[in-house]
């Protein structure tokens, strides 16, 4: 058991964020953007700033994408596949008659930074900037999501090299979205543009897949998704299986009601599919849960997992803390249309950690949390029948407690707690309460199963 726990824990991402998700759009307000200019470079790249200032005029404001991997107002990217990076600048002019965001593509030619094209959006916000070869020409296009995906006020522009290879041209995709991704869905070696929408007025909840062909946007496929979702709070794109890519959409339906939807390109049927979607109800119930946990690769195997959350036995309160729930992480097998559990954990967001549940504890434990003493106790659950909810608490197996560094130093030599780890002036300690129990772990098992939460 010890080695199995160690292998799982070692693979789990240290950046796992189990706290309820919040939107990213508030990270950069118009007020702060004026103060958040990239450091002015010296030497070779100083010409980039000089060209922006010459084009934008005095008093311009850099605009920062609010989501995605590229959060800078000046993004460096090789757009011509010549091994040399070009610059993409996002800014708003000081001129009051210009309220939208401008984007300029800049390359170095004959030792001088010159414009490859400037374009203006009517939107005052930049949601995300992504790259992918969406027109199959061998060089990456720039895909920009303007506006706010979560507010439903959004649109997409695709910027690609023209026939000369010297200038950029714009293709506008008149499509709002709640989530936007660029990745290779159909396995042909080229990326596609993926959008997911919630129901708004006459617009149905729908996922779509696009590509750019002969200068025009082409729809490759679409599928219906949960019509009751009011907000798609997260979208994780990547591998569903070793040879199948797709996306996991985490949606919010109402207070304390969340689901995950899987969407992928079915190569046999040559269509975009959402296997959990029920055409009778136009909703998804298979992955319903009451906690807002985001799908991701939790065990480091490069395959996405989705969370299934259930109250531990003996706990009936629907307002119970997250430590009263067991989160089972599952992969979706596209060939068998089944969910496969890969690991389970209990999360304590109050004290900022999660604990990997060993297989021998599955259906055998419950928890008690004392917030005032910062303790979480795992107890054996003795079921009285086939119904797991019927039974009683057994012996206490493990207590995890959080001390301040000062508290720990004052009593360390006299305590039966052992240190799990220390971080930020806090000591996380454990205590094995029934070492003779068949369910008891070792100190090393506990340390290997314990991980701090970090917020993305």
Low-confidence stretches: 1-31
| Rough outline | globular
Task: Provide mean pLDDT, rounded.
Answer: 89
End-to-end separation in angstroms reads 31 Å
How many strands in all? 27
Class by alpha and beta content: mainly beta
Please report the number of helical segments.
Answer: 5
Structure report:
With 456 residues, the chain is mainly beta. Helices cover 9% and strands 43% of the residues. It is built from five helices and 27 strands. A hairpin with a 2-residue loop joins strand 25 (418-423) and strand 26 (426-432). Helix 1 (2-11) runs parallel beside helix 5 (443-449). The two termini are 31 Å apart.
What brief labels describe this structure?
single chain, mainly beta, five-stranded antiparallel sheet, 5 helices, 27 strands, 9% helix
What is the element layout, followed by pairings?
Elements: H1 2-11, H2 30-33, H3 46-56, E1 61-62, E2 74-77, E3 86-92, E4 102-109, E5 112-120, E6 126-132, E7 141-148, E8 153-161, E9 168-173, E10 179-183, E11 192-197, E12 206-213, E13 216-224, E14 231-241, E15 244-254, E16 257-266, E17 271-273, E18 306-311, E19 325-333, E20 338-348, E21 353-356, E22 365-370, E23 375-383, E24 391-404, H4 405-411, E25 418-423, E26 426-432, H5 443-449, E27 450-452
Antiparallel strand pairs: 1-3, 2-3, 3-4, 4-5, 6-7, 7-8, 8-9, 10-11, 11-12, 12-13, 14-15, 15-16, 16-17, 18-19, 19-20, 20-21, 21-27, 22-23, 23-24, 24-26, 25-26
Helix pairs in contact: 1-5
